[in-house]
Specification:
There is one protein chain. The radius of gyration is 19 Å and the shape is globular. A ten-stranded mixed β-sheet has the order 1-2-4-7-8-3-9-12-10-11, sandwiched between helices. The protein has a single domain, classed as 3-Layer(aba) Sandwich (Rossmann fold). By secondary structure, it is an alpha/beta fold. It has six helices and twelve strands. Helices cover 34% and strands 25% of the residues.
Amino acid sequence: MVSWPRGKLITAPSPPHRALRLTCVIKLLEEPRLRDPVLVEGLPGIGFVANIAAMHMIRELGGRKFAVIKSSSFQDFAMTIEGGGVRTPVNELYECAGRFMVLYGNTQASDNVGQYELCWRVLELAKRYGCRLVLTMGGYKRDRVSGRPKVYCAATDRDLLEEARELCDGVVVGNIYGAAGLLLGLGKLMGLKGVCFLAETPGLYPDARAAKEVLSVVSRFLGFEIDLKKLEQAALLTDEMLRGLFEREEAKGPGGGIV
C-alpha cells in the first residue's frame, strides 16, 4: 500500500517538444482502499461507449473519487453546465468496491505526446497500488448495427485472450486508438497484462446500448455483479429520440431540410 499525504500533487514534466513543456499533474484527494486492483479505462471515445460504461460502474458500485488529473494537453475548452457553471477538461480516478481503479473523464489528451504522458503516469500510479491488469473499453465503429451490438476483444496475453474470447463475439481486427489502445501497449512495457472490450456502435450519438453490452461482458470477465437496467432504459430513450428525428425528416419530404 502506498501512502501519500492528502492533496499531494504528483507532477511529471515531460521532455521538451517543439519548445513546449507539457505537464501532467495528478492530485491525490484521499488514500484509496485498494487490494490487487484492476485499472479500468472509461474515457470518451467512439459513441462514448467507455465513458457511459465507466460512469454507470462508478454509480452502481458506489465509487469514490480519490484523484484528479490535469494536463496541458487536454483540449482547450470549457463546458457550461446547468445553472451557468463551468467545467474544464479533467480526468479522475475512482475506487470502486476496493477492487477497481476506474479512469473517468470528459476528455483525452489532444496530441500524441500528451496522450503518452497521461497514460504513462496513470499506469505508474496504478502499478504503485499493486495493479497487475489493465482493462480498456470502447466503441467498435460500424456503419450499421442490427439488433444486439456485438462485443469484440483483444489482449496482450494469450491466456487472457482465450478467456476473453469465450465471452465475446470475436476478436478485434485493426487498430485500437486513443487511451484504450495506448494503455494496453504501455502497460505491457511495464509488466502489466491488458485486455480490451469493444462494442459495435455507429458512433453518431452516445450509445447506451453498446455501453450496456460491453459492461455486461466486463462484469462477467472480472466476476462482479452490476444492475444494467438504467442503461437499458437510456438505450430505449435514445431509440425513441432517433425514431422521432427520422419521422420528422421523412415528413419534410425530399429537400425539405434544405434552406
